[in-house]
Every structure is written in structure tokens, then in C-alpha cells.
Predict the structure.
Amino acid sequence: MSHIRLRLAAAAILLAPLTACSSATGTPATADGRAGVKADAKAGDRPGTVSVTPSGQYARPGEPVRVTSSGARLTSVTVTDADGHKLAGKVSADGSTWTSFRKAAPGTAYRVTAATRSKDGGTGSSTASFTTADADRVNKVDWRPGADATVGVAQPVSLVFDNRVTNKAEVEKQLKISTSNGTEGSWGWMQDWTGKDRVDWRPKSYWKPGTRVTLNAELNGTDSGTGGGWFVRDYTTTFTVGARQIVKVDLDRHRLTLERDGRAVREIPVSGGTPGGDRRSWRGTAVLLAKEGTINMNSETVGLGDAYDKMVDYSMRLTWSGMYAHAAPRNASFFGRENHSSGCIGMSDANAKWIYGQLRPGDPFEIKGAETKGTVAPGNGFGDWNLSWDDWQATSALR
């Protein structure tokens, strides 16, 4: 790794222009700009030399900034970009090095100022600058939930990446979750339904209502790995967990029950997916992704040929693969009696309108039934809860 040498010049004598300006109180400078030995100093007492990595006009990003002093203690270091943002860091116990907590970001100019003190009390102040190379490829993030949202107790924090992430451990180290009550949780990696890399943070069990959650994804300056490119910004979001609402769906009984704070609020007769083929419903825990209202549902988009193409009211998306809970007046004769849909959970207009008004994204649907086509996968919506806690933790890149 290359270095910038910060040259300590005399406060009273300037022998030549320096690429790194400096001063060392009462100390003459040598011809090459490095600080020399004071005439009245004890042997070995020198103001020292200071160097910085990375260096140059096209320095590689993605490494912490490191300032090293030889022959004098570092007393303070400031690293600032062109917008005035500072990289925080820490001086080592022996005063020989300072290392930034964050990495140098791509395409950024930095100015470094270092103050030193020699053994005999002499002080020096040095400056230098470097610029990192631009990112040859940029990786971006789509994240949920949005800022200031109020969500259900099963809502994970979810990040989907535009490009592949092979440095999963390095990326995960930059992701910080803080909660108002010390909630235990873990990151887990998966392939999203879109085929992109995705990482979710879910608690060990459902969130406690009222929990305030903050994501700080300090990704600026992190390399995604081969083919993925660099992250060139940070991401943050804060949200609040609402009431404990759980929708329990028993497809064998053809009933949906909304529970709030452990008590049943209403039981609704429903009709789920038709047994015996691709029209069956999913089972397990599916998290309400979005309340989409009135939408067009076309069977061809979910691989069921031309079976239907219709407008549907009070649509609540449960999986990316196309399972919804919604109003289904055409199936009225089957509600509470028989599963006869194309995979969705249908109910009357009145009941759909009512429950649509009660729920929010992040509320879990806990679905059971003998005739289903499998368990909702983690990447198919927010099926994270269908893994045991131990299995979920095992999907972290840091385990």
C-alpha cells in the first residue's frame, strides 16, 4: 500500500514548498522536508514523521484511513471529505497510529490533519490529501419498511440488492439494528423471489408492540464482491411496531380468525385454494406485504393459464408468488364450507372490507391445512418465520 509522507517543516524556516504543509515548534527542517534533530534535544528526541494510507489521486477505496507517526505521538487526527463530513477514528494507546472506523468511499477527496507531540514536548501539525478512485460499478439497495412506518409484529427489516453480493460477511458487518428495548434478532441471507440477493433481520420471536427500530446500513465504501460493485451511500430507516395482531387461517375448517393481543376479535368464513394441484394455498406464516386495494388478477401471471382475468377488491398481498387474501363474492357458496379458489384466501365483500381496515403491513397470517402446496419460503414474501430460530441464525454470513 502506498503512503503519503507528511513532512514536518520548521515554524520559522521554510526551505521549499511541501506537498504536505506542516510545522514543528522550534525544530529545524532537513533539506528533503523531514523534521531534523533539535540542537538542544536529547539524543533520540525528534518531532517525527507522519504518513497516511491510502494515498494519491486514484487511491483504492474500501479500506480504513490509517495515519502513522514515527518518532512522535499522535495527539489528534481529523479526516474530512469535500462536503465537510468527518471520518471518526481512534488513536492507538501508544500514539503511533490512528485508524478510521469507516472505510474510504469511492470517488471522494479527503483532507487529513494530524497533530503530534515529541518526547521533549515539541509539537507538530501536518496536512495531506488524497482522492479515491471512482466506483467502476455501483450497487444499490431497496429496503423495507419505509421511514416512520407503523408495522405489524412480524415485519422484518429487509434489504434487496441490485447486484450480486459475494462479500456477504463484509456487507453484514456494516448493517446495524438498534431497538428501544434490546430485542434479540439476527440477519439472514436468501435469494429474493426476483432472483436478487437479499438479507433480512428478524427478531427471535414476534416484535413487542411499541418497539422503536432503527436500521443504519453504513455501506458507503463497502465492496459487494466480484461483479457486484461498490456501495456509494448509507441507508437508514426508523419504524415503530404497532398492536399485536395475528391472523390465523384454518383451511380445514375454512375459517379465518383475527386475534389482537391474544384475544379473538372476529371469525370469518373463507375459502382457500382448491385441493389436488397448483391451485392449493401455501401454509406456514405469511406476512402481509401490502394492502393493494382493487387490482386486476390474471391467472397467466401465476402460471395458471387463462383461468381468470378479473378485478378484485380489498386485496392484501401475502406472497410475491401471488397469494392474496381478498374479497371473492363469486365464491360465496363455498365460504366456510369448501376450498375452491385459485390459491388465495377469499371472503365476502363485507368481511374483506372489515379486515382490510384492521390490518397493516407486517401482520402475520398463520396458515394451516392438510391440502396445501408447501410452506412459504423465506424469499417468497417474508417467509422468514418458517425457519426455526437456530436455522434462521445459520443463514447469517457471520455465523
User: Anything to note?
Assistant: The radius of gyration is 30 Å. The chain has a mean pLDDT of 88.
